[in-house]
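PROTEIN DESIGN WORKSHEET
SECTION A - STRUCTURE
LENGTH: 517
TOKENS:
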């Protein structure tokens, strides 16, 4: 299979004529090739998007939404096929791949519903015979840059709200997962989206991603990926006064209190630490446990980890698939060495798995460290692999302080049966997402997704919050008085307010009352 660019409703090779292989991380086999684009390919896509957007913005939003309903039904119809490609392309186990496609389906129907909402506000005017409202208008052409760990879900979180709001999209998928991008573009094509509204340009971040960020006709960038790349994009967008939304991962923790249901906590920790081989931005990489139950929790965790079968994600009995590539495998292993050198105690795992069939892919053993201190690198930096660090706390306050003492702020969780502790945690945990009696993963698409500090820059994916990224607010005033009425100045005297309060102090006059521009 060859992943091509999709520009202006046509499938095309890049101008460079160069390609790169797409590798199945489960067995190292080449499952396709991807065209590697140039800056000129980006310019061509942006031109097409700009032209298409003008027409698309004039289509009534409920009609725009009809395309998303079709996209939702097509995703549903093709769910199993898509899930299998997803597993082969990035390695997550098939059950999770199905869940990821379902996220896209949910997003399609949810955002299609927005076609009949896209609410603005109506509000009273301060003047007689005048009407005031705010409406959302599309920003224009939006650039979307996504990672490989959720190759379809993240693209749907970003492109569906953008499209229903009347924008055109140019999408640069991750180099590792172009096949899923191709599948999503095919679905838009089949659903009848007008040409040019959704475009895909494959290629590397430094070439294609940068060109998209720098292009003057791209009015907003929505990015998910590493903190380092996100910062660079934000700097460029700042210079260009371009809207930019960033989602850049986390160092997420589960807090386990001494009153917790430990069986439930173990299940939640296992799922959120080792699901997707620890490569979710919401993956749990720290457990902060009350000292009274630390030993018991560790014993139970070690027991439960024995049930985690590692292997090819297409095997329904496998719980932990491969990591994305060899570089990731090396990075994870390096962090394990760092952890040992820092004095953390390795309880399980800590090795690259290379026995039998596993030698062909990129597998890391689910790993558990204990006696980890908050200032250790493994407790602070995003490892993005199946490595979990257990830390001790003597109280809820201490646990929350440890949770908050990292540069990221995406997701946190607490297991407790005490409603007072639960509510204190909801208030004091400094993350965009908080779970009570569940692990750190499991976001639902109709709530805002994103976080504080190094995780983001104040914007959110998903939910109606995502519409704020892809729309501008326009305030509209309709004066039906037939005369010039000046806001803040021509106030009706019968309203009881002084017509010109400044004059009482003898300082009336043009420029004194001013009023807003
Ligand atoms: P990156 O941030 O490098 O990649 C994310 C996306 O940005 C990819 O499409 C990438 O393109 C693109 N990109 C890279 N450089 C630029 C650039 N200069 N300008 C514009 N776009 C660019 O993440 P990686 O996939 O390399 O993963 C590295 C680490 O990032 C992980 O180990 C993890 O810590 C973190 N991460 C966090 C994620 C999250 O969900 N928040 C998701 C993925 C990674 P391409 O890769 O094709 O060159």
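SECTION B - SEQUENCE
RESIDUE ASSIGNMENT:
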């Amino acid at each position: 299979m060859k992943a091509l660019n999709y520009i202006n409703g046509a499938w095309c090779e890049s101008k460079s004529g160069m390609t790169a292989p797409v590798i199945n991380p489960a067995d190292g086999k080449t499952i396709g090739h991807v065209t590697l684009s140039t800056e000129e390919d980006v310019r061509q896509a942006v031109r097409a998007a700009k032209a298409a957007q003008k027409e698309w913005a004039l289509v009534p939003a409920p009609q725009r939404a009809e395309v998303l309903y079709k996209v939702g039904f097509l995703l549903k119809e093709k769910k199993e096929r898509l899930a299998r490609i997803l597993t082969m392309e990035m390695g997550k186990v098939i059950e999770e791949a199905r869940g990821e496609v379902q996220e896209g389906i949910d997003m399609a129907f949810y955002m299609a519903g927005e076609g009949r909402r896209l609410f603005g506000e109506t509000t009273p005017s301060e003047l007689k015979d005048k009407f005031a409202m705010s409406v959302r208008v599309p920003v224009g052409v939006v650039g979307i840059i996504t990672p490989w760990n959720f190759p379809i879900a993240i693209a749907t979180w970003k492109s569906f709200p953008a499209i229903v709001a009347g924008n055109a999209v140019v999408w640069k998928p991750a180099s590792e997962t172009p096949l899923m991008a191709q599948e999503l573009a095919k679905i838009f094509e089949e659903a009848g989206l007008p040409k040019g509204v959704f475009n895909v340009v494959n290629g590397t971040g430094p070439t294609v991603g940068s060109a998209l960020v720098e292009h003057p006709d791209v009015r907003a960038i929505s990015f998910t990926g590493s903190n380092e790349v996100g910062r660079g994009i934000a700097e460029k967008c700042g210079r260009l006064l371009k809207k930019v939304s960033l989602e850049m991962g986390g160092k997420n923790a589960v807090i386990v209190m001494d009153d917790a249901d430990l069986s439930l906590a173990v299940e939640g920790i296992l799922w959120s630490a080792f699901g997707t081989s620890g490569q979710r931005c919401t993956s749990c990489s720290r457990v902060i446990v009350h000292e009274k139950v630390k030993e018991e929790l560790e014993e139970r965790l070690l027991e439960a980890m024995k049930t985690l079968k590692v292997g090819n994600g297409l095997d329904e009995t496998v719980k932990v698939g491969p990591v994305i590539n060899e570089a990731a495998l090396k990075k994870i292993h390096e962090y394990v060495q760092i952890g040992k050198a820092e004095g953390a105690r390795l309880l399980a795992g800590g090795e690259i798995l290379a026995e039998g069939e596993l030698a062909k892919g990129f597998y890391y053993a689910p790993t558990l460290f204990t006696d980890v201190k908050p200032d250790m690198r493994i407790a602070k930096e995003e490892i993005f692999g199946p490595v979990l660090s257990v830390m001790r706390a003597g109280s809820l306050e201490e646990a929350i302080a440890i949770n908050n003492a990292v540069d990221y702020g995406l997701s946190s969780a607490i297991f407790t049966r005490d409603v007072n502790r639960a509510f204190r945690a909801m208030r004091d945990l400094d993350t965009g997402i908080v779970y009570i009696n569940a692990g750190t993963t499991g976001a639902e698409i109709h709530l805002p997704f994103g976080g504080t500090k190094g995780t983001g820059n104040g914007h959110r994916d998903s939910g109606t919050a995502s519409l704020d990224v892809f729309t501008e607010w326009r305030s509209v005033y309709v004066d039906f008085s037939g005369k010039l009425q000046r806001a803040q100045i021509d106030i009706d005297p019968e309203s009881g307010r002084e017509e010109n309060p400044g004059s009482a102090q003898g300082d009336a006059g043009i420029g004194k009352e001013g009023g807003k521009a």
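SECTION C - NOTES
Residues 252-445 form a domain with the Aldehyde Dehydrogenase; Chain A, domain 2 fold (CATH 3.40.309.10).
Residues 145-149, 172, 174-175, 204-206, 209-210, 213, 224-226, 229, 232-233, 247-249, 281, 382, 384 surround NDP (CB under 6 Å).
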